[in-house]
């Protein structure tokens, strides 16, 4: 988006401008005054962060190459995945399926959480484990949730249950890669809420999205104006309902 000349390089001021746009994205949603919607002046920070120095040098004269940035992001993701694997595997070279479930459900706070853990206790055999490569492949899958969600919606519209084979194909379509049968079997056993050997994909996607945020997501706070708009809307709805009931009582 920022590479105007197509040379796969971005300057510091362009990178910082995009950073400001992203950081202000939520604020722009609540702006109603047209004068406030004017593009703000972008000022570069007086103090460079370690990341900015790495990308653009101490003086900011370097340009960031696309391949360098992509390599940095891939290495960062790999390091985070390996750290999480070591944390939940207690330093072992493999992760027990119970530990994988703990990692998966760590930030989950739904009414079905007790059912998930009941499935873990009753359906997962003791001693079974997941390798680091299987864990990384599953993490790669979680970065394609939007594509996977579309595939799940197709099954929902067709009123078809999502069984193991369908789930495996949907993952392949969304990511271009396959998950091991070991991972697939584990996920199915955890998220089979009805015991019908079908995936409760709505719950599954909700858990994965919470897992992706890693507990850092904060619900958007409504402004005072939006709050009173909501109160007015609900009040009008209540009055209409009273009139409707009163009208029925006349006959």
Automatic annotation (TrEMBL):
<keyword id="KW-0677">Repeat</keyword>
<keyword id="KW-0472">Membrane</keyword>
<feature type="domain" description="EF-hand">
    <location>
        <begin position="179"/>
        <end position="214"/>
    </location>
</feature>
<keyword id="KW-0496">Mitochondrion</keyword>
<dbReference type="GO" id="GO:1990246">
    <property type="term" value="C:uniplex complex"/>
</dbReference>
<keyword id="KW-0999">Mitochondrion inner membrane</keyword>
<dbReference type="InterPro" id="IPR002048">
    <property type="entry name" value="EF_hand_dom"/>
</dbReference>
<dbReference type="GO" id="GO:0051560">
    <property type="term" value="P:mitochondrial calcium ion homeostasis"/>
</dbReference>
<protein>
    <submittedName>
        <fullName>Mitochondrial calcium uptake 2</fullName>
    </submittedName>
</protein>
<keyword id="KW-1015">Disulfide bond</keyword>
<dbReference type="InterPro" id="IPR039800">
    <property type="entry name" value="MICU1/2/3"/>
</dbReference>
<dbReference type="GO" id="GO:0005509">
    <property type="term" value="F:calcium ion binding"/>
</dbReference>
<dbReference type="InterPro" id="IPR011992">
    <property type="entry name" value="EF-hand-dom_pair"/>
</dbReference>
<keyword id="KW-0809">Transit peptide</keyword>
<dbReference type="GO" id="GO:0036444">
    <property type="term" value="P:calcium import into the mitochondrion"/>
</dbReference>
<dbReference type="GO" id="GO:0005758">
    <property type="term" value="C:mitochondrial intermembrane space"/>
</dbReference>
């Amino acid at each position: 988006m920022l590479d105007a000349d197509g040379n796969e390089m971005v300057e510091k001021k362009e990178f910082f401008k995009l950073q400001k746009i992203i950081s202000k994205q939520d604020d722009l949603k609540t702006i109603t005054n047209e004068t406030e919607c004017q593009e703000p002046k972008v000022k570069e920070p007086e103090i460079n962060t370690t990341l900015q120095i790495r990308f653009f040098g101490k003086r900011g004269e370097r340009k960031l190459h696309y391949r360098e940035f992509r390599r940095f992001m891939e290495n960062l993701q790999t390091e985070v995945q390996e750290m999480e694997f070591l944390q939940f595997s207690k330093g072992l070279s493999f992760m027990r399926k119970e530990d994988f479930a703990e990692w998966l459900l760590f930030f989950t706070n739904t009414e079905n959480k007790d059912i998930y853990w009941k499935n873990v206790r009753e359906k997962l055999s003791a001693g079974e484990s997941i390798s680091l490569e299987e864990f990384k492949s599953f993490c790669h899958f979680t970065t394609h949730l939007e594509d996977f969600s579309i595939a799940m919606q197709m099954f929902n519209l067709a009123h078809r249950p999502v069984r193991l084979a369908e789930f495996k194909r949907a993952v392949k379509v969304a990511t271009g890669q396959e998950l091991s049968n070991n991972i697939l079997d584990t996920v199915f056993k955890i998220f089979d809420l009805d015991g019908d050997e079908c995936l409760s994909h709505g719950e599954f996607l909700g858990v994965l999205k919470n897992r992706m945020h890693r507990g850092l997501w904060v619900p958007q706070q409504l402004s005072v104006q939006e709050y009173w708009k909501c109160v007015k809307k609900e009040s009008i709805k209540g009055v209409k309902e009273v009139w409707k009931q009163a009208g029925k009582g006349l006959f």
